[in-house]
């Protein structure tokens, strides 16, 4: 029971973090593309 609740609370945080990483990676790719 506790694990299910924990996962429900944790999932939005994980997706937000993943989206943030996607943005950072995309920005880095653009930056390196301009330099090349």
Comma- or semicolon-separated keywords:
mainly alpha; rod-shaped; 36 residues; 94% helix
Kindly describe this structure:
The protein is mostly helical and 36 residues long. Helix content is 94%, strand content 0%. The radius of gyration is 16 Å and the shape is rod-shaped.
Quick summary:
The protein has 36 residues and is mainly α. It has one helix at 2-35. The chain has one domain (1-36).
Topology:
Elements: H1 2-35
Query: What separation lies between the terminal Cα atoms?
Result: 52 Å
Number of domains: 1
Secondary-structure element string: H
Structural class assignment = mainly alpha
Give the oligomeric state of the chains in this entry, treating copies of one chain as homo and distinct chains as hetero: single chain
Biggest beta-sheet profile: none
Alpha carbon gyration radius: 16 Å
**Contiguous helical run count:** 1
The percentage of residues in β strands lies in: under 5%
Uncertain regions spanning at least 5 consecutive residues: none
How many strands appear in the DSSP assignment?
A: 0
Chain-averaged pLDDT: 83
């Amino acid at each position: 029971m506790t694990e299910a609740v924990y996962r429900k609370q944790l999932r939005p945080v994980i997706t937000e973090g993943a989206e943030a990483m996607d943005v950072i990676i995309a920005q880095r790719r653009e930056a390196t593309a301009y330099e090349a």
